[in-house]
Amino acid sequence: MDLKKMLSEAKTIAVIGCSGKSWRTSHQIASYLQEQGYRIIPVHPDYGEVLGEKAYPAVYDIPDETQVDVVDIFRDSAHTLQMVEDVCRRVEETGQRPLVWTQLGVSSQEAMARAGEEGLDYVENKCLMVEHRRLLG
Questions:
Q1: So what's the pLDDT on residue 29?
Q2: Which residues pair with 40 in a beta bridge?
Q3: Residue 47 CA, distance from chain mean position
Q4: What distance in Å separates the CA atoms of residue 69 and residue 47, rounded to the nearest whole number?
Q5: For position 137, what pLDDT does the model report?
Q6: Which of 86, 88, 91, 98 is nearest to 9 (CA)?
Q7: In the prediction, which pLDDT does 111 show?
Q8: Is residue 45 exposed (0-12), middle (13-18) or buried (19+ Cβ within 10 Å)?
Q9: Are strands 99-102 and 122-123 parallel, antiparallel or unpaired?
């Protein structure tokens, strides 16, 4: 998998667990990505809007016509499999096949296996901001 190519071609990133609190890492990284020109779609059931974008309770609630290129997961590893299941549900509904990305400290062999079953590219335990800066900075 060519991460540099994927990140340079991506336009929209859904951030699962994107906080509305500016001091939270998920908010800071989503803000950075937005500043780099990506459209950010916050996914968090507690917010109606984050960073000026409408937030959705789950990734499968994002309108079907909205292309999602990357799904960045900012949830505890215990929830990662469920988040990947939610992405798979969206794949079945839309046919879109986003890159699934789990942030530093987020790791789940079951989630990785499930993403593989669905044919999704999967990046685990890496900071999207750090990798973006390294590859495209």
A1: 97
A2: 13
A3: 16
A4: 22
A5: 83
A6: 98
A7: 95
A8: exposed
A9: parallel
Tens digits of residue pLDDT in 101-121:
999 888 899 999 999 999 999
User: 125 CB contacts (<8 Å, ≥6 apart)?
Assistant: 102, 103, 104, 105, 106, 107
Rounded-to-integer distance, Cα 132 and Cα 1, Å:
15
For tokens 């390294």, the residue is: 134
Distance CA 95, CA 92 (A): 6
Contact 130, 105 (CB under 8 A): no
Amino acid at 26: S
So what's the pLDDT on residue 104? 86
What pLDDT, on a 0 to 100 scale, did the predictor assign at position 116?
96
Would you state the structure tokens that stand for residue 30, as one six-digit string? 């989503």
Backbone φ and ψ for 116, nearest 5 degrees, come out as -60, -40
Give me the amino acid identity at 15: V
Site of tokens 């994107």: 18
List, for the chain, all residue ranges whose pLDDT scores fall below the cut of 70: none
- Concatenated DSSP letters for 12-41? EEEEET--SSTTSHHHHHHHHHHHTTPEEE
